[in-house]
Amino acid sequence: MYSDVLIFIDGLWTMAAGGRTIPVVNPSTGEPIGTVAHADKSDLDRALEAADKGFRVWRKISAFDRSKVMRKAADLLRERADAIAPLLTLEQGKPLGDSKGEALAGADVIDWFAEEARRAYGRVIPARAEGVYQLVVKEPVGPVAAFTPWNFPINQVVRKLSLRAGGGLLDHRQGPGGNAGLAGRADPLLR
Known about the structure:
The protein is an alpha+beta fold. It contains six helices and eight strands. It has a two-stranded antiparallel sheet. A two-stranded antiparallel sheet has the order 3-4. α2 packs antiparallel against α4 and α3 packs across α4. It is globular, with a radius of gyration of 19 Å. Mean pLDDT is 84; it is low at 169-191.
């Protein structure tokens, strides 16, 4: 049921460059249930390069089309909630119903930000002088790194990722070892 989690960089699942792993422990039993790859500096450098490469493509996608991609991710999260819930329960010790609820709530958050992405309006600022025009244009500026707490791994990831994806940013997520399996399964949702 639980598999060891690799690092997802530049479209590929790979072990950490240094080969290190961190045990993932079931908080209910204290028993290890798997491992997660432990990234080192060279892994982070590769992730930054990949994020920059991906950003150059993603920033050219219209807000309308980014919204459609995000809606698809929300639909996939809903479809897979029954498979995701047991993993979250293993990693977090939450009741199964709460785990499924978190997955479904995460899909709702993605939908909300998908709609907001379509309304990334700019504005015109009144000028002080004749013939001067001041415009605000919202546009993607670059990749970000986002770190999440352990207690609501799906909720925290989708809030950070959806806000940035809707605005044309790419995200590198790092969840603590306690939600490694879910973090390792987030990227396929966006395919």
